Amino acid sequence: MISARFNKLLRNCSSLYKKNQIHHAMTEKQTKIKINNIEINYLKVGNGPQTLLLLPGALGSIFTDFKPQIETLNREKYTIVAWDPPGYGFSRPPERDFSPGFFYRDADYAISLMKSLQIDRYSLLGWSDGGITALIMASKAVESVEKLIVWGSNAYVTEKDIELYEKIRNVQKWSPRMRQPFIDLYGEKYFSDTWNAWVNSFQIILKENGGDICREALSKIDAPTLILHGAQDPLVPMEHPVHLHKKIKYGSLEIYPEGKHNIHLRYAELFNSAVDDFLAEDL
Known about the structure:
By secondary structure, the protein is α/β, with parallel strands linked by helices.
């Protein structure tokens, strides 16, 4: 499943992003804009002709999830928009709502955000839950989404998936390195309560919807799609990217053999180069 292009990137990763790479500080100005009834927090940087929307994972936010991409992707090539979904990051209040259909609501808010910013055409980069939102967006805003990149994402959940989520329900058992950024952002109570609600939401999806998150969306996606996945991902078994690859008509799949869930952070240079190459391909 590993493409020749990906093998080439892997061999050459040590030569990527040399001294002339400009790094940008986390002090960049984030802004809020009212979308429907919620003040949505977002960041917009760069002035390139290709616009990218970055969609974070569960309880994620702009800089906790995408710092290496915001700092390193070429701002003369891209205009980068990143957001905090409703109830996450600084898009609070309200508290996060995990009632049925929350991924579809996130997609609607994100589509409305781009319309409010008067951006008609854009590509999506979605990680984990953000990848699910991106899949739904690409199925709904077909005329707007140029390309789609998702990783660590799934269109359904199984009993096995729920068992994996239950193992990490208790945030007190997380390593301090994994836990602390969320505590800094949310405080211990909101972090713990929201994470528990996240786990519960998938139990409901399995019980009441047969595990279906967005299966029906996949056949509606017309955008060329790059599916990236860490073969050692402890949260999203390999069957999920394989399913996405099978069901998305213009999808390609690339595997990071030693990668886990956060390949864009762990292998940031390699990941960003793969993004560059895919976005540079002719539409």
